Amino acid sequence: MANIEHLQTVHVPALKVYETLTTAEGLAEIWTNELITGNQIGFINEFRFGSNDITKMRIEELIPNKKVVWHCIDSDPEWIGTMISFDIQEKNGKSYITLRHMNWKEVTPFYRSCNYNWAIFLYSLKSYCEDGEGIPYHKRKF
């Protein structure tokens, strides 16, 4: 199995990062503004990327200011069954976010594309947390 892993430093406290990753307001600013989200274990977040592209993520773990884990239950076939985790560590007023997209069956062109797009996601998170403006899907040029 293959994993995607990225590390991003954000110059804000962990609380801001955690709130961004667990609220509709935050996720709309950094990923997509077409969404249904909750912030409780077992809730199924829905993210839309255009009319026919939906991703459903069941929330598996929430540790305030430290960790968010999603299990993909519906999306592109290569995503179904994968896990996405955000580990947040705060040190001296900065947050270090480790994103892991785990349990890919193989490295494919789609895997490589997603690897790139997760990096853009983290850059969007950083931009939103530090400057108040992210780069969600509807603002990106593909």
UniProtKB/TrEMBL annotation:
Domain of life (superkingdom): Bacteria
Family: Belongs to the AHA1 family.
Residue ranges constituting the Activator of Hsp90 ATPase homologue 1/2-like C-terminal domain according to the UniProt record: 12-129
Protein name, per record: ATPase
InterPro entries reported in the protein's UniProt record: ASHA1/2-like_C (IPR013538), START-like_dom_sf (IPR023393)
UniProt organism field: Paenibacillus swuensis
